[in-house]
């Protein structure tokens, strides 16, 4: 399946809550395959449909030896423990900051055939589930940063070579969580 271009920070689709999937058909299966292929090509740990311009509640993930997808996901926090650690985003290429997330979550949703799925995640997988679900709600991880870090992040985003460029240049990323730098 074809690798899709990843939408970059500033694209309105990234700030628009995605619609629930209502039809579990060949088109949905193709979308999940395209998301998976694009995520792997970009070197990411997860990818949500809005990041390729499709405003549907679907994401793929491949982290902590767990790989798959969730359609119409929700998650519940398990316990009170939090984690602070590096986070990046394929839609904000080459940049990353420490972000606070819940340490343990349980995600529920469906597979491409409409069968129920449940995924328990800790650490990186929990971070990925929260990050990708945020994308489906029109939220970017920079929105989760503390005020001081967010101010720094926005300055770095505005200074990035790719910011405002419709066809960014691809080069290698300094960190595997961030995928390739555009």
UniProtKB/TrEMBL annotation:
One of its GO terms (molecular function) is peptide deformylase activity. Binds 1 Fe(2+) ion. The active site is at 132. Pfam families: Pep_deformylase (PF01327). InterPro entries: Peptide_deformylase. It catalyses: N-terminal N-formyl-L-methionyl-[peptide] + H2O = N-terminal L-methionyl-[peptide] + formate. Fe cation binds at residues 89, 131, 135. Signal peptide: none annotated. Its cofactor is Fe(2+). Its EC number is 3.5.1.88. Keywords: Hydrolase, Iron, Metal-binding, Protein biosynthesis. Belongs to the polypeptide deformylase family. Removes the formyl group from the N-terminal Met of newly synthesized proteins. Requires at least a dipeptide for an efficient rate of reaction. N-terminal L-methionine is a prerequisite for activity but the enzyme has broad specificity at other positions. PANTHER family: PEPTIDE DEFORMYLASE, PEPTIDE DEFORMYLASE, MITOCHONDRIAL. NCBIfam families: pept_deformyl, PRK00150.1-3. This is Peptide deformylase. It comes from Pseudonocardia abyssalis. The lineage of its organism: Bacteria, Bacillati, Actinomycetota, Actinomycetes, Pseudonocardiales.
């Amino acid at each position: 399946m074809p690798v899709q271009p990843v939408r970059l920070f500033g694209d309105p689709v990234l700030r628009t809550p995605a619609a629930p999937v209502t039809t579990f058909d060949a088109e949905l299966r193709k979308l999940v395959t395209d998301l998976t292929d694009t995520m792997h090509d970009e070197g990411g740990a997860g990818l949500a449909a809005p990041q390729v311009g499709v405003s549907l509640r679907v994401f793929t993930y491949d982290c902590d030896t767990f790989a798959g997808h969730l359609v119409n996901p929700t998650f519940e926090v398990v316990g009170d423990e939090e984690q602070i650690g590096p986070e990046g985003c394929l839609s904000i290429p080459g940049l990353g900051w420490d972000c606070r997330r819940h340490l343990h979550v349980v995600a529920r949703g469906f597979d491409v055939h409409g069968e129920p799925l449940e995924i328990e995640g800790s650490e990186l997988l929990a971070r990925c589930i929260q990050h990708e679900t945020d994308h489906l709600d029109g939220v970017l991880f920079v929105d989760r940063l503390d005020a001081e870090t967010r101010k720094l992040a926005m300055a770095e985003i505005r200074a990035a070579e790719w910011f405002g460029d419709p066809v960014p240049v691809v080069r290698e990323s300094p960190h595997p969580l961030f995928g390739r730098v555009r």
